[in-house]
Design goal:
By secondary structure, this protein is an alpha+beta fold. It is built from ten helices and 35 strands. α6 runs parallel beside α7. The model has no long low-confidence stretch (mean pLDDT 96).
Length: 611
């Protein structure tokens, strides 16, 4: 489907499959200096463009020079149409820094893709479609200011679809990029990249690659195209491949997830400290409580379960990381935690723990400011949002060694772990560090986070993190959740259309849960996506029995499709309440978010449509 005859016109417009694509002239390329001054490319004193032809393709290269106070600064842009497949690379480079400190570069200009039926394809969290005339404002406040490789963009691309064709824009140095969605009520939509310096310098090229598809293509075609590109890069390692290296994964398939509390302690420094009701700042749920509950769940017919233990360390949940050991004495200490892990093993269940190697608490026993991330100006960022109070960020270059230190102690203490959750790694943006003893770019930060996952795998422990991300698909096995943004136009499972066979995603069951779109339930989203279900840690009576019925149904489905690609997704009703997915083995799922009805059609011909 790739067009080998894309033509770049002299006015900068592009012709592809008979459609003319234009950039928004009201949002030209811009250079933003560190002090906030904005220089449109049109403000440069000298601009020289000339044709360029290489062994890969042809296009145009423009050299820009001369901004007030920085006469020696020179940069260039290049638009290159590749002969092989017709994709177009938009590349920005700094030729001579000339003393200029860049905050961001906004280029290329956003595409003007409008018209009846046009919509944007956006990878904000699980994904959304944004019609060009959508009546509500969308994108004003993206997570992490639109930083890619975070919750703001699970995958480093966006697209737009029109009746005459579509395009996919892939940000190649995504760890050093943000993006902006501008969509006022009623539209139109404008999406643009914001290239960032690395450690204060724009020393490497920044490229956005555009791929065009013909009329009749849609969001599913863009997802299939990106999976092909990701495969060429070697990004995805499938769950089947990961299970060869760590067979524990086969036991995780079809599990329900029960997320349980241990010790809670909220510091007076924390934003969440309850000053009016101090008793709320501390709580304890001993390991023995969860032993009793999982034994009862086994008796009630729950066959496959993964228990995620929060607050297991002496300081309490989100306190004093990375110095979290020993297991909390008030919860039962080493013996109590070992007894819980042994019980999980006895019952055939999986046991895992919450852990954290980014938040670096100032009251951690081994805290040293020399280990904290330093900004390019040498400052150390800090805040006191979470329960543990005042913190910096631990430089990720040190995280693998701290992970090894802590987990080797746990394993030596007889704690049998099948999984571990390393908080925020696939949710929060990449860090950089200017400390001379452990300088680290954002790209290196992501590599260090992946090393933590690889270490766990080497010890037979399944790696998990808060959400999912494209950069981690070679190492992450499952996550806490991967739902939808709070302000969401049309929710659509873009991430699963690309990576369903690479990572297991649990879903909360109820309506009103964080990340579950208004008017829907997590149960139906879990069905539609063939995901893992959550099991309540507190429900009793009929509510628990209902939850267990959900778990049985979803467990069977996940055992069937959990390692398969999601090969199709469709809206079957005009109001988009009825949706349909197909998995590569032939399983088909239909859900109606309006009525709550559903149907699972297995390849054997068996149909399930009730709990």
């Amino acid at each position: 489907m790739w067009n080998k005859s894309v033509r770049l016109r002299e006015d900068g417009a592009m012709e592809a499959y008979g459609r003319l694509w234009r950039m928004d002239e009201e949002r030209p390329g811009e250079l933003v200096l560190e002090n906030g001054t904005v220089y449109p490319f049109s403000a440069f004193e000298k601009t020289v463009s000339k044709p360029v032809s290489t062994g890969l393709g042809s296009g145009i290269r423009t050299v820009l020079q001369g901004i007030p106070g920085y006469a020696d600064f020179m940069c260039e842009t290049e638009i290159l149409v590749h002969d092989t497949d017709g994709h177009v690379d938009f590349t920005f480079s700094v030729v001579r820094p000339g003393g200029v400190r860049i905050r961001e570069v906004r280029w290329p200009a956003p595409m003007a893709a409008e018209g009846p039926g046009a919509y944007a394809v956006l990878n904000t969290m699980q994904g959304q479609l944004l019609p060009a005339d959508w009546p509500e404002a969308v994108g004003e406040k993206l997570p992490f200011d639109g930083q890619m490789c975070s919750e703001a963009a699970y995958m480093p691309w966006w697209g737009e679809v029109t009746k005459e064709g579509s395009y996919l824009a892939w940000v190649r140095q995504s760890q050093d990029a943000k993006y902006t969605i501008h969509h006022p009520a009623g539209g139109p939509t404008r999406i643009r990249v914001r290239h960032l310096p690395s450690l204060g310098h724009m020393s490497e090229q920044r490229t956005v690659s555009l791929y065009f598809l013909p009329a009749g293509s849609d969001y599913r075609d863009l997802c299939r195209l990106y999976r092909r590109l990701a495969d060429e890069e070697g990004k995805p390692i499938t769950l089947k491949e990961k299970a060869v290296r760590n067979p524990q994964l086969n036991r995780l398939l079809g599990c329900c997830v029960m997320h349980v509390a241990g010790k809670t302690h909220v510091s007076p420094d924390s934003r969440y400290y309850h000053r009016d009701d101090p008793e709320k700042n501390d709580s304890l749920v001993p390991f023995s409580h969860w032993e009793e509950r999982v034994r009862r769940l086994k008796d009630m017919g729950v066959d496959r379960l993964y228990l995620h233990q929060d607050g297991w360390g002496q300081p309490g949940y989100d306190n004093q990381h990375p110095d979290y050991l020993p297991p909390c004495r008030e919860l039962g200490g080493w013996e109590g935690m070992k007894s819980l892990s042994d019980t999980m093993q006895e019952l055939g269940y999986l046991f895992g723990i919450h852990d954290q190697y980014r938040d670096y608490y100032l009251d951690a026993p081994t805290y040293d400011p020399d280990n904290a991330c330093r900004s390019s100006d040498g400052s150390i960022y800090g805040h006191s949002i979470w329960a543990g109070g005042k913190q910096n960020y631990l430089c990720a270059s040190l995280a693998p060694d701290y992970v090894r230190r802590n987990f080797e102690q746990l394993l030596a203490g007889g704690i049998r772990l099948q999984a571990a959750y390393l908080d925020v790694f696939t949710c929060n943006e990449a860090d950089e560090c200017s400390h001379p003893r452990h300088r680290m770019t954002r790209k290196e930060c992501l590599a260090y986070r992946a090393r933590c996952f690889h270490y766990l795998t080497s010890r037979g422990i399944l790696p998990s993190s808060e959400e999912v991300n494209d950069w981690a698909m070679d190492s992450q096995v499952f996550c806490h959740w991967a739902p939808y943004p709070d302000v969401c136009a049309i929710p659509v499972p873009l991430f699963n259309l690309v990576y369903h066979d690479c990572v297991l995603i649990p879903w909360k069951m109820a309506a009103g849960e964080w990340g579950i779109p208004r008017g829907t339930t997590g149960f139906l989203h879990c069905l539609l996506n063939g995901g893992l279900p959550y099991l309540s840690d507190t429900a009793e009576g009929e509510a628990l029995e209902e939850n267990i019925r959900q778990v049985h149904l979803l467990s069977e489905l996940n055992l069937q499709v959990g390692m398969e690609k999601m090969v199709d997704h469709l809206f079957l009703s005009e109001d988009r309440r009825v949706q349909y997915t197909v998995f590569e083995g032939g399983t088909k799922v239909t859900v109606d978010f309006g009525t709550g009805n559903f149907e699972i059609c297995y390849p054997s011909g068996r149909t399930v449509n009730q709990l």
